[in-house]
UniProtKB/TrEMBL annotation:
<dbReference type="GO" id="GO:0055052">
    <property type="term" value="C:ATP-binding cassette (ABC) transporter complex, substrate-binding subunit-containing"/>
</dbReference>
<keyword id="KW-1003">Cell membrane</keyword>
<dbReference type="GO" id="GO:0016887">
    <property type="term" value="F:ATP hydrolysis activity"/>
</dbReference>
<dbReference type="InterPro" id="IPR027417">
    <property type="entry name" value="P-loop_NTPase"/>
</dbReference>
<keyword id="KW-0813">Transport</keyword>
<dbReference type="InterPro" id="IPR003439">
    <property type="entry name" value="ABC_transporter-like_ATP-bd"/>
</dbReference>
<dbReference type="InterPro" id="IPR012340">
    <property type="entry name" value="NA-bd_OB-fold"/>
</dbReference>
<comment type="similarity">
    <text>Belongs to the ABC transporter superfamily.</text>
</comment>
<dbReference type="Pfam" id="PF00005">
    <property type="entry name" value="ABC_tran"/>
</dbReference>
<feature type="domain" description="ABC transporter">
    <location>
        <begin position="4"/>
        <end position="241"/>
    </location>
</feature>
<dbReference type="InterPro" id="IPR003593">
    <property type="entry name" value="AAA+_ATPase"/>
</dbReference>
<dbReference type="InterPro" id="IPR047641">
    <property type="entry name" value="ABC_transpr_MalK/UgpC-like"/>
</dbReference>
<dbReference type="InterPro" id="IPR040582">
    <property type="entry name" value="OB_MalK-like"/>
</dbReference>
<dbReference type="InterPro" id="IPR015853">
    <property type="entry name" value="ABC_transpr_FbpC"/>
</dbReference>
<protein>
    <submittedName>
        <fullName>Carbohydrate ABC transporter ATP-binding protein, CUT1 family</fullName>
    </submittedName>
</protein>
<keyword id="KW-0547">Nucleotide-binding</keyword>
<dbReference type="GO" id="GO:0005524">
    <property type="term" value="F:ATP binding"/>
</dbReference>
Length: 360
């Protein structure tokens, strides 16, 4: 296992980048703790795979360094970094059996055959392929081959880090849940440093100790699922995390009150915000009103089983509210109110800390 340090790291696919906009991965300075499980989460093209490939050594950064436990490995080839990587599409040896595919990384490092047999059996049980160990990989389904790739990535206990690049894309939904659970169990048992790239918030939030949210080539927040939900550091985090995501409305702020759509909103704390100021509030903290609050009009109600999502229009903009599954939605709803404890204030897309409080 290893602590991973990203020191002044950035990358451009252009030979001579001239501005920050030319960088697919903008400057990063982060320490990722030894033995923790991280998920790199963001939309396609945000820089997740670029960063993962730099960590693995498949890509050399345009600037900066990457260190494993303080050792500079920026110029070290992948083989010397002692990592295991599982890619989006399965990479297996078709002419080998499932057993030999799983055993290959251990045999390649000269491990004792008795240990190999025991470890392969353990991993096969973990990925649900005990009854397929003697079958050739050729002819297996794509999801079966990906399970082999996952197993081969997990078979070594001595790696510095396990890297997963959207590994469950070709896996059916039920198996996705089981494999995520197994990966989490493996992490708890052996304490590997794990980095898991995904665009799926459910995968990220159920797998990782810390989620690294990326947007436009930049890390905009690193936090626990609870931190990302309650205090999104950037409006993108609020939008991307949650279903539905955070409501964001233009606002003006003066002390502990904001003006939204011509109405006064109590913020519960004092703020100072300039530039493009917005109020963010998750649907769970929006309540419907028949008399007081911000004028709103119901556009539709979506019953999703566990609760109802109420889509409303406020000042020409759609927002969402969460209502209980059994809750009646009166036809004369004409306003919404925001719970102060669920409000975040943003200036130029970044969260503003209440006056007198330390940044979260």
């Amino acid at each position: 296992m290893a602590k991973i340090t990203l020191d002044n790291l950035a990358h451009s696919y252009l030979a001579k980048p001239k501005s920050e906009n030319d960088f697919a991965l903008k400057e990063l300075n982060h320490d990722w703790a030894d033995g923790e499980a991280y998920a790199l989460l963001g939309a396609s093209g945000c820089g997740k795979s670029t960063l993962l490939n730099i960590i693995s050594g498949l890509l050399h950064p345009s600037q900066g360094r990457i260190l494993f436990d303080g050792k500079d490995v920026t110029h070290a080839p992948t083989a010397e970094r002692n990592i295991a990587q599982v890619f989006q599409f399965p990479v297996v040896y078709d002419t080998m059996t499932v057993r030999d595919n799983l055993a290959f990384p251990l045999r390649n490092r000269g491990r004792d055959e008795a240990y190999i047999v025991e470890r392969v059996q353990e991993i096969a049980r973990m990925i649900g392929m005990e009854d397929m160990l003697n079958r050739k990989a050729r002819g297996l389904t794509a999801d079966a081959k990906q399970k082999i790739s996952l197993g081969r990535g997990m078979v070594r206990k001595d790696v510095n880090a396990l890297l997963f690049d959207e590994p469950l894309t070709v896996i059916d939904p039920h198996m996705k849940w089981e494999l995520r659970t197994q990966l989490k169990s493996l992490h708890h048992e052996f304490g590997h440093t794990m980095i898991y790239v995904t665009h799926d918030q459910t995968e990220a939030l159920t797998f990782a100790d810390k989620v690294v949210v990326m947007y436009d080539g930049r890390v905009v927040q690193i936090g626990t699922p609870q931190e990302l939900f309650e205090r999104p550091a950037h409006t993108f985090v609020g939008y991307f995390i949650g279903s539905p995501g955070m409501n964001v409305l233009p606002a003006t702020v003066s002390g502990r009150v904001a003006q939204v759509a011509g109405q006064t909103v109590d913020l519960g704390a004092d703020y100072t915000a300039t530039g493009k100021v917005e109020l963010g509030v998750r649907p769970e903290f929006v309540t419907l009103s028949q008399n007081a609050g911000i004028p709103a009009r119901i556009r539709r109600v979506e019953d999703v089983g566990r609760h109802k999502i109420v889509r409303l229009e406020v000042a020409g903009q759609e927002i969402s509210a969460i209502a209980g599954e059994a809750e009646d939605i009166p036809a004369d709803i004409c306003a919404v109110q925001f719970a102060p404890e669920g409000i975040n204030i943003y200036a130029n897309d970044w969260r503003v800390t209440p006056n007198g409080k330390a940044a979260a």
